[in-house]
Amino acid sequence: MFSLPKTATIIEVGPRDGLQNEARTVNTEDKLDFIKALQEAGLKEMELTSFVSPKWVPQMADARDIIAGAKKTGRQLVLTPNERGITSALDAGADSIAVFVGVSNSFNEKNINKTTAQSMETLKPLIEKVKQDGIFVRACISTAFYCPFEGAVDPQRTIDLCRQFVDWGVDELSVADTIGLANPQESHELFSRLKEQFPDVLIAAHFHDTRRMALANAYAALVAGIDRFDASAGGLGGCPFAPGATGNVATEDLIHMFHRMGVDTGVDLEKLYEAISLIEPHVSNPLQTGMYTLYKNRK
Asked: Is the pLDDT reported for residue 238 higher than 80?
């Protein structure tokens, strides 16, 4: 009989990954209220924002103001696609950055106009430099299971890419089912191999709920020994460079499942629902995840 971890850490990605593809512009103050409420619910680690071109992701144009205005509690990640983004984030006061690359060349080229190998060549000296300065570095591995342009991705390609990042000294790997095509068997197999090969590196699972498989995949990763999970409050999200990708696994649904299985997250669900209710009026569509819908029906 397998044993589950007693605790799990949720990395809240709603303020960045959740809002980046939102059509309606969300005001900076409303974002900061959302972030504060998420922190008060007990979410200690969070993706706050990203330093990307406002031309391509206008929702993140206020990144500097978000960093300045957010209360410093726990690890606050800032997504940085290149040297300019890293420099801007550090100048703004960030002490934890996230870089990203797609296992799939096609996805990577659609995303940042570089092949995977070209991206890695660019990232290596940047990562090595910031690690010398004591900066926490997370590597986000996109299309780890499937690519919207190339189809199934060989797990060995994902593992090989992760190994490069580990060799460069990254602190964490966030491994993503970017378009929500993975199944629980694939999730368990890949994360089991990653845990076996990189036992000293933090590994987080990142699932999108395109085909309503995110919770099942998260459970399979939990059984494989993963105890860190990206999730988005209200199920917000979607990748602007991945056709058909919908929101991330909902934080509230994931936490409810974990708590029911005796896996503690340290998050107060009632306060989390309140945080979601703060952001819902500012996004384009009603938020209708399972647990949040039950919460609204109770009121």
From this structure: no
Q: Distance (Å, rounded) from C-alpha 98 to C-alpha 82?
A: 10
Question: Cα–Cα–Cα angle for 255, 269, 25, nearest 5°?
Answer: 90
Task: In whole angstroms, give the CA distance from residue 138 to residue 36.
Answer: 23
Q: What is the spatial distance between Cα 74 and Cα 134, in angstroms, rounded to a whole number?
A: 16
**In DSSP terms, which residues pair with 79 in a beta bridge?**
50, 98
d(CA 189, CA 203): 14
pTM of the model: 0.95
CB 83 within 8 A of CB 53: no
Q: Which DSSP string do the residues of 192-225 spell out, in sequence order?
A: HHHHHH-TTSEEEEEEB-TTS-HHHHHHHHHHTT
Whether 116 has a pLDDT exceeding 90, the answer reads: yes
- What is the number of H-type helices and E-type strands within the chain? 11, 10
Determine the straight-line distance between the first and last CA of the chain, rounded to whole angstroms: 40
Which active-site residues does the annotation give? 239
Distance CA 123, CA 82 (A): 7
Output the six-digit token pair for 287.
Answer: 């938020």
